[in-house]
Amino acid sequence: MRALLVLLLALLAFxxxxxxxxxxxxxxxxxxxxxxxxxxxxxxxxVMGDRAxxxxxxxxNGWLAxxxxxxxxxxxxxxxxxxxxxxSGDLDGARFSVGGLDGTITDVxxxxxxxxxxxxxxILRRDRTAIDLALTQAPPMAVPAxxxxxxxxxxxGIDHLAFVAGLVLLVGAGRRLIGAITAFTVAHSVTLAAGxxxxxxxxxxxxxxxxxxxxxxxxxxxxxxxxxxxxxTARLPWIAAFAFGxxxxxxxxxxxxxxxxxxxxxPVALLLFNLGVEAGxxxxxxxxxxxxxxWRRIARADWRGxxxxxxxxxxxxxxxCYAGFLFVERTARVFA
Length: 336
Fold this sequence. Notes:
Radius of gyration: 22 Å
Number of helices: 9
Order of helices and strands: HEEEEEEEEEEHHHHHHHH
Number of domains: 2
Shape: elongated
Strand content: 15-25%
Distance between the termini: 37 Å
Structural class: alpha+beta
């Protein structure tokens, strides 16, 4: 009982940090030549709490030193936009750097495209804070940066990982888990595409609250299973996984939309982001199953029915405590 109390207090203490895991979003520098000699330049840097992450973009040709055409501060990003009249040669070979990047864990997406189609798609990180914009090089065939973003998004998203962990605990290993994960994947792939392409619009705050509710629902199902009741999710895991996967897909779409997509490569970037999410998800499931196998070997417990008491008793309540905190916090945002 004392151990359970300590666990619950720890969850309540670290809940706010876990709930804001997705706030470590990437920054974006985008320069697109919309018509010959006219560039639309965008800089988006993430906001943590009530202030923007300390990043300062710099272009050696002086474009970013000019007064922005538009400035906007939201709960997620600080946005600046410029409309620059200049030939392509003014940007070709210019050096773009980000001050303060070496002291953060934030990545910076760089997307540059000239009217002729040449350009650059890459990511700057703390170990690489500058790049020479050589536009005369051929553009890449894909946008590999978005695969990494997908992996990082799922692995930094405590809420999504909590749902997947609950699903694994509920259905165990084997074909049922494969079916549930497949249903979850198909569902969130559908809404990820629909939300990102603008076919379906859903309020971000409401979706985030419903994602928290989906985790809370799984926690209650785990408690019912432990009490001997036949939980509907345990009997038909793929149905619940598909239904809740639709919600989580909208969450992925919101993160991708806020990051920004290269206009000429939206299908490829969307596909790579989704593949990155799947790769991260499968990695996480693999880690869970490896831990379960190790636990079974050490404790000589059967994963299918004789799990250690701590796993059966504590896990549902820990998951429920986290999800309950998340649901209340996010529901408050809906009505704020």
